Fold this protein.
Amino acid sequence: MSGTIERAPAGAHLLQLYEHVQGLTAAVTKFAGDALGRDESVILVASPEHGRSFADALTGMGFDLAALSAAGRYALIDAQQLLPELIVEGMPNEDRFEALIASRVRAAHAAAPSGRVSAYGELVDLLWQSGRLNAALHLEDLWRTLMARVPMTLMCGYGLHLLGSDLDEQALLRTCEVHSHALLAHDRTRLDQVIDRALDGVLGNSVTQSLRPLIRATLQAPGLLGNAERTVLWLRRNLPHHYDTVLSEARRLYGENG
Amino acid sequence: MSGRTHEPSDELVVLHVEDDPNDTFFVKHAFDKVAPAITLRAVADGDLATSYLGGLPPFEDRVNHPAPNLVLMDLKLPKRSGHEVLQWLRAQPGMDRLPVVILSSSTERADIERAYALGANAYVPKQGDLQGLVELVRGLVTYALLARTR
């Protein structure tokens, strides 16, 4: 599973996992840049920090964002400002979603020469990071309903600290279930190596050599995640008494390598 | 419901639940190659699986039918499906931590999701080659030993 893809499949509902803004910026601006190059309209719903990073990168790629915005083909929306307006009694409200988001997507669709929209959103991430998983999943449902009506591709950004002590396995798996593809903006090779070295260090090389075929063969539902994520989740489920030690070692190695 | 409680065994005991005699043969072959000292018991349907796990007749003699440390189970079984066995097993006192690995030819998302929802520890597709099966069994034995030493 790679952090960037050559082309997002049309109509895909992409889960973009990220750890740092640099990786996220590379992934989102490739997604948006490719879409603009295909004469699609682009809507980015992002935090102010991320939005600035995306806009700077797209400008650096040669896109005239002011002109695209004036033509109705580009919009950058502040996710932190939008989210409170969307929520009623703790959950995203369908009518407000229509007024605040869907209407803008439809307008972008009308302005797109290709008749397609590519949208990136972090509203779900804001809900997820604050522990409101059910609200995040309900918002994903609202997006999916919109996707059934407007030709569009959607990328949802979720911050994931795989080596963090507060990894919520169930939240991650439930989030994967509502997406068609998962993309990983981490340094894949380094993360895989760190996890492997941590396993070797804690369990011993012969034990991990024996376990690897079983871990690699184990199917997760859905099967969207990369080797490092699947190994961590496998350990957490099946060898919980070793999980903390392995993750602690992995964090040390990850930090050690800078 | 159960005749005898699930008592941890000093030796490693694996219960293989599979109705296809070819698959049973090849799994046994792989275990014999990887870990000939372990005890492998096989039953061919879901009702026999629950009877074995519950220590019910004809498996009430725990000397000859020791309680397993690992269950390796297909989903598509006669009499009671692997999902149903799993659901029954997780409802039994003392069996919530018994490692259960589903070994199935189905890669249907619904089957995988349901297995995990019912408490499976891992879901592994049946291996198409013997070497792959041997490597898998080696991993299962290692896993069972590690899971036992808590």
User: Anything to note?
Assistant: The longest helix of chain A spans residues 94-111. The interface with chain B takes residues 177, 203, 207, 210-215, 217-222, 234, 237-239, 241-242 of chain A (CB under 8 Å). Chain A has a mean pLDDT of 90. The first strand of chain A starts at residue 13 and ends at 18.
